[in-house]
Amino acid sequence: GAVVSQHPSRVICKSGTSVKIECRSLDFQATTMFWYRQFPKQSLMLMATSNEGSKATYEQGVEKDKFLINHASLTLSTLTVTSAHPEDSSFYICSASSWTGSTYGYTFGSGTRLTVV
Amino acid sequence: GEDVEQSLFLSVREGDSSVINCTYTDSSSTYLYWYKQEPGAGLQLLTYIFSNMDMKQDQRLTVLLNKKDKHLSLRIADTQTGDSAIYFCADLTGTASKLTFGTGTRLQVTL
Fold first, then answer.
1. Do B104 and A42 touch (CB under 8 A)?
2. Does the distance separating the beta carbons of A113 and B43 come in below 8 Å?
3. Of the candidates A61, A1, A58, A9, which has an alpha carbon nearest to the alpha carbon of residue A28?
4. Average pLDDT of the residues in A14-33
5. Counting CB atoms within 10 angstroms of each CB, which of A37, B22, B31, B67 has the fewest?
6. Cα dihedral B89, A21, A97, A107 in deg (nearest 10)
7. Chain A residues near residue B103 by CB distance under 8 angstroms
8. Strands B85-93 and B98-101, how do they pair?
9. Which residue from A99, A69, A97 is spatially nearest to A109, judged by alpha carbons?
């Protein structure tokens, strides 16, 4: 089945530095990729939607200059948290979608736990 | 915007059936999904149902959809300790092909 690889799975960084998270669809081409943020014991909050070769669409309240998304190919999207601060510590999950012929299939990465110290 | 609500917690005994409920507000939903999330992991698709269906069964899983009441449920038969996780329903609506997730239900399976 469809597999999405996300890494790193865990990262600890110092306040003020930037962190890049990669999301790859391994055996299919993803028409769209999504980035979510999940706080402890809460649901997933959609941050942005990205289509290959075009600018990402950010959800209301998400700072596009802070969370840089690049979707350079149909199999790779990256999220860069710039000038990270402790309040950016969270669990980030990517998802890749593709049309299965009857519905959109959404495959999720295994998530990245970001801790900013 | 769309609201998708779930009860926060459900505890069942091993071997019993679990029923996790979900309500949504958008009447233009096309597909509804159930995902499972284990601690520190991503989401695993369990099953999905098209909005013109009332029921879908897949091994131990049964999905019921009441479109009139905008109510979705997931029944897990013969619940096992390995089923302990958080379960999210998700709703696909509109032309943006975005999923809206419910608040998640933590299922605890006791011996």
1. yes
2. no
3. A1
4. 93
5. B67
6. -50
7. 42-43
8. antiparallel
9. A97
Q: Does B47 touch chain A (CB under 8 A)?
A: no
The residue with tokens 């769209």 is A32
- Asked if A58 and A1 touch (Cβ cutoff 8 Å), the reply is no
Of A41-45, B50-54, B93-97, the one with minimum mean pLDDT is: B93-97
**Tell me: the pLDDT tens digits for B64-110?**
999 999 999 999 999 999 999 999 999 887 655 678 899 999 999 99
Q: What is the DSSP string of B74-89?
A: EEESS--GGG-EEEEE
Question: Mean pLDDT in chain B?
Answer: 92
Secondary structure class of A44 (helix, strand, coil): strand
> Under a CB-based contact definition with an 8 Å cutoff, are residues A49 and A34 in contact?
yes
Residue showing tokens 């999220």: A79
Rounded Cα–Cα distance for residues B68 and B14 (Å) = 33
Nearest to B98 among A46, A91, A109 (CB): A46
